[in-house]
Specification:
272 residues; MetI-like fold; elongated; transmembrane; MetI-like_sf; Binding-protein-dependent transport systems inner membrane component; BP-dependent_transpt_permease
Length: 272
């Protein structure tokens, strides 16, 4: 692990440090203030100051605390969703890559059908069936991520499956599952992690959009999308209400994208 960080591009190290710092700030704020923002109407719409670094909102809640807690709530939706999509999608793609004939075609066609439903449409359907909430957003984003990871795993896996060492392992008696998880997966992990970082960036945008229209994370938990929604009618008198949640959303998306770019550069520098 230490050798990996020493040889990793600066962009990758910087983005990982940025996310770790953000996680520490989120946990620190939660442990110090609690996880539900407190209202104080006597401090409503205060401009940024030493007492309230990001200012306060229309209900007197500290925007510094609320912004970091919203980032934490969004992360608790995004990262499990992408992890679920990775866990389900990658095995599908690996099996499709190692299996020839109708099995692989059926798996990829099923992934394409699932891919036809965007995360927003899936979230709307889940809201109609189960109601609004962060867990439904997690499931909707995961459903969108499954075919993406399946396609990436299948396309890269098929390239590796043509190599001689896979044929030798097959002749030695190894089954399809052993070939897929012991030989294909380790050789395509970097592309998969790169795709995972891009999916996290997309998922933060999707979660903010779903919360903005009211079907994402529900009150009293804060959400970046709902903070932006609450700020839109007060932009003329309190522009900081939209500025800081927007900066936080940019921070999350840019960090995820920089991790992906750093992994691409790392793969290029270490390609044999």
């Amino acid at each position: 692990m230490i050798s990996f960080f020493r040889s990793a591009p600066f962009l990758l190290r910087f983005s990982l440090f940025s996310l770790v710092l953000l996680a520490l700030l989120i946990v620190g704020n939660g442990l110090f203030y609690g996880f539900i923002p407190a209202m104080d109407l006597s401090d409503r719409l205060q401009a940024p100051s030493w007492h309230h670094l990001f200012g306060t909102d229309a209900l007197g809640r500290d925007l510094w605390y609320e912004t970091f807690m919203a980032a934490g709530c969004s992360s608790l939706v995004v990262f499990p969703a992408v992890a679920l999509g990775f866990t389900v999608g990658v095995p599908i793609g690996l099996i499709a890559a190692i299996k020839k004939g109708w099995v692989g075609e059926i798996l990829m066609q099923a992934s394409d059908i699932l891919f036809a439903f965007p995360a927003l449409i899936a979230a709307l359907l889940l809201q109609l069936l189960c109601g609004a909430g962060g867990q439904n957003v997690t499931l909707a984003i995961a459903l969108y991520a499954i075919p993406v990871f399946a396609r990436v795993a299948c396309s890269h896996g098929r390239v590796i499956a043509r190599l001689d060492f896979i044929a030798a392992a097959r002749l030695s008696g190894k089954g399809s599952l052993a070939l897929a998880f012991h030989h294909l997966l380790p050789n395509i992990m970097l592309p998969l992690l790169t795709q995972a970082s891009s999916q996290c960036a997309f998922a933060f945008i999707a979660e903010a959009a779903l919360s903005y229209i009211g079907i994402g994370i529900q009150p009293p938990l804060p959400s970046l999308g709902r903070l932006l929604l609450d700020a839109q009618n007060l932009l003329n008198i309190a522009p900081w209400l939209a500025f800081w949640p927007g900066v936080m959303l940019f921070w999350l998306i840019a960090s995820c994208q920089m991790i992906g770019e750093g992994l691409i550069r790392y793969q290029a520098d270490h390609r044999l």
